[in-house]
Amino acid sequence: MIKETIDxxxxxxxxxxxxxxxxxAVRSIQASxxxxxxxxxxxxxxxxxxxxxxxxxxxxxxxxxxTATDGTWSRSRALNAGFAVSSGSxxxxxxxxxxxxxxxxxxxxxxxxxxxxxCLLLQCRDLPEQWxxxxxxxxxxxxxxxxxxxxxxxRWGMGGMMAVPREVFMRIRGLDERMHTxxxxxxxxxxxxxxxxxxxxxxxxxxxxxxxxxxxxxxxxHSKSVAATNAIEFNKKIVYTDKTFVRNTPIWAHRPxxxxxxxxxxxxxxxxxxxLAESISSVLCQTxxxxxxxxxxxxxxxxxxxxxxxxxDRRIRYFFQENAGIAAAxxxxxxxxxxxxxxxxxxxDLMTPWRLEKHFEHIAAGTHGSxxxxxxxxxxxxxxxxxxxxxxxDGTIIDxxxxxxxxxxxxxxxxxxxxxxxxxxxxxxxxxxxxxxxRSGVAMKHSGxxxxxxxxxxxxxxxxxxxxxxxxxxxxxxxxSYITTxxxxxxxxxxxxxxxxxxxxxxxxxxxxxxxxxxxxxxxxAVFRGSLECLPHEVRRRLLxxxxxxxxxxxxxxxxxxxxxxxxGASMRDLALLRRAGVxxxxxxxxxxxxxxxEESVPNDRAAITEAAVRQAFRxxxxxxxxxxxxxxxxxxxxxxxRKVSGIGWTRSFTCGDLKExxxxxxxxxxxxxxxxxxxxxxxxxxxLGDAIEPASLLNELNISRRLFGASL
Amino acid sequence: xxxxxxxxxxxxxxxxxxADDYDGxxxxxxxxxxxxxxxxxxxxxxVAAFLVFNSTMGGxxxxxxxxxxxxxxxxxxxxxxxxxxxxxxxxxxxxLPSGSRPLELSWTGIEATPKDDTAGVDTTYLRLERSDQAAxxxxxxxxxxxxxxxxxxxxxxxxxxxxxxxxxAAAVLFAEDLDADSIRxxxxxxxxxxxxxxxxxxxxxxxxxxxxxxx
Amino acid sequence: MSQILIIEENRVKISMPDAERIxxxxxxxxxxxxxxxxxxxxxxxxxxxxxNSVTDSCKGVYYSTILGEMFAYYPGTPDDAYSEPLxxxxxxxPTEVSFELLTWPGRExxxxxMFGGSALFVESYDVASKGLSTRNRILNGGGHKFR
Lengths: 713, 215, 147
Fold this sequence. Notes:
Chain A is of the alpha/beta class and 713 residues long.
């Protein structure tokens, strides 16, 4: 099927909204595309009932997307869910109570198609009270009247409409999905677009008008509950303190199908099959899974290809070339890369599991990449030594000539593609590239993280080729500083000092890195919790077989919600599988041969294990189900397995070996309601969280109810 | 956006910019040469800065020196629909530099291609070498070769006007030093396109001509 | 999972999971019948994790020389309504507590399944949290048929 190309995609995000208003909004947008090909996507984020909306939207020719939620409203997530199915070159977000004048989207779309450096913003005009959706529906869109009677929204600021080129949306990874309830999403998005290079243009053009249909204020805009206030504060904090622009790391929940990987991990390899598997596994264990791995095999004669293919992971792409040297292989990786950023990774090294995620915490406006420090480990003993990198600028290069460890870099792929590794050099190509980048104006930020565990073994290039490498570094530095005068060198030298070194997280606790050393050196325990749904059945079975114990949590006796368990002796491949399944886990480890007995630290009492799983699930429930309406939570134990609840909570069953328990997680407006429900339903045991429990008043309330409503209670 | 002309300790000379509220963050904040022009006319300086950084200019733009109302008008017109406000605009009339010969512009990977009908005519040249591959400069009687990061500011899209804007900026800055009257760029461009006409208009306000040197 | 609430005719026992200790229990009874002219006493017993009696340290419980047991005053139950709660605080946090309803005089068990309409509010804490993590449970005597 050939997909029709779309110029403009307009997404309306909403929840529980009047159908009439929505229809007017959609119709006005559809009529404003002019000569452009447009689509309207209505993203319903958790409305209680939605079949009517779906039917109406589809009859209008709009696309309808529904996302089931836990009841929390998030404009960011709603819009992202809509953009996830969009295909337009220009992406426009708006709200469900706005109508657009007839040339609006054509103008907005054309401006961005003509000049992709723009991020457009539009301030709405409020219609007076008589112009409700019902009235507009009755008399039609009266654009001339609207222009005359409407007034600019009194609170100047973001909101209403934003438009950016599709590439920009992809690059900054959409709206920030951490934000919820309301407030701050638009300014956050616009600010990030600006950091990524877009100039902001408030549209003030008579062809583009956005009118707000009058309606009674909604509860959300006036509710100042503690939860809402906290959410607003939380959102504000993101807007004012988070200086990054690439978001939804480590996880972009509403990711468009056509979004490329955020990162390409580039591995060039030559006859290192023995180390490569672990090197790749360490990538697969990353907390940020939005990557692809490009392996360029520079003419290996060992079983490198088989090793790569054994992972059976579509994110890994293998390219073979006749042996052409390290620089050519790295250039090939850059040419094949699809990620906006490239993380350089060597075939014998291991990434720390946070590496990719941490890079993005340090990429702010004007920064093209980030790097960190690394730890050398002895391949036979596991002994570790920290190598702290200096910050990277003209001064530190002229001072010492050295660049940070290559295997700690993450940089825009386009920069590597344009500067390229120098294929005339046989060694020191990374240092050469770093110096050429800095000389040309590329800025890389020190993350203060240990990004890589560098395997010290026989046959390392740095060991076997040290003098060639030093010569290459010296010559590159001579070019770098050719035009620098002595005065300049002195000035740059005067700026050197302790600030050249950044404090290294975990730098004084290298023991915490033990679990991330190779399988041959370490005995690990991985305690995990999560759905293993996306793993193939056979893989899941094998993984569970490796567990000392595991608990299966089911919903209503049927579908598996999640597994929790502990794998003793977990390999890096096991950890990679857990990560791929999106499972939370904690891993601990000891060097093989150390005195610590790992097995002893794993609980083996099934009752205690199940109890822990029940309690964790209950905490999850309280976190998800609590809001201003519900503040009392019940955990009902020891019920018949066929007991079901609807509306007020979940039924969950927990199985650990032959042990099984079914429980109810319930939410109530207060503890009196909870107590009443318990008596009415004959639940023997209910644990309560939330509101304070005062036996005398609970009993009294129940006695009053009984007198009023008879003996049914 | 605040645009400054300055030198760096390491030895470069050129523009450094700081983005303001409505500006996009420029991908690279500096635009430099290993040797700066000896003379810098404020009009040409403003035109050059505009050529390099225009795609991120979104609000108030402050140039290093006062430039003419004609340059201001051209920049505002080209920026439309983005309402960019440029300052400081000169009030008193000032002399404009004049040159006598065409300038053949070329850069790493692209050779200058002189037109047949200019054979025998005195020409100058400006060649820009990639900052990551060469350092320093070489002035000859006829022209100048200099290392610059201009290439990194180019989007590299062949045949697109946007790809030559940074190189053109360099030529505008060095035109006076090289006694140039017009700039001749290599490549194939649609001279009827709005972008090309905008460039001709803009350079015209700085008393420079623009031509395509077809191969 | 073993039962926390065990009811045997005129006796109710609360037996906490291993990792928990009882801080306080409030007991409420409903419609105690068949006592006629006699009065009712609640015999209270509490044991710690090692199985030793810690009833002595319970606040709200008294020793009766005639009964030879620790007992609490019966709160009196209105018809078809919950009584005022009888609250007992345990200083030496036990893991097991039992209540037994006896007539006085006579030391006869009171009626049959007298705890069928009772409600017990149990406040306990998790040993691992060193007392910081409090748990509140409501045990419903009427619901004990679901095991």
